[in-house]
Amino acid sequence: MSQLLSEQTSQQLVNSIVDIAEKIALEKVKQSRKRYLIQKEVMEEYNVTHKVITEWEMMGLRKVKIGKTIRYDWQDIENVIEQMKKWSVCNAWEYEAMRRKHNEIEFTLYNFNIAINNFVTSNI
Length: 124
Prior knowledge:
Blueprint: H1 7-32, E1 36-38, H2 39-46, H3 50-58, E2 63-66, E3 69-73, H4 74-86, H5 89-122
Antiparallel strand pairs: 1-3, 2-3
């Protein structure tokens, strides 16, 4: 009986099928996960500390309050991790510096508005 595929082509086909099966299995695991995790679950699942979660929050991770408990959407966590992969450490520090500068500008504008209101009120 003659072979339809060469040994190399057969191996490539098997590898492709295994890759596809792994991707499907991984997607099914992701879909079966709980959507919202409490901080302790995040720490266990991602092997991180409270400090790391706080850093993720500064990078855009949103908290969701469900009842009295704060939870994190695992999809948001995955998105933040993907963003971190794209950013260099330098960019993360630049982001933090920009955020601080933005807060300083907002504070200055707030004080300026108070000063203007006090001036207008006292001169009426």
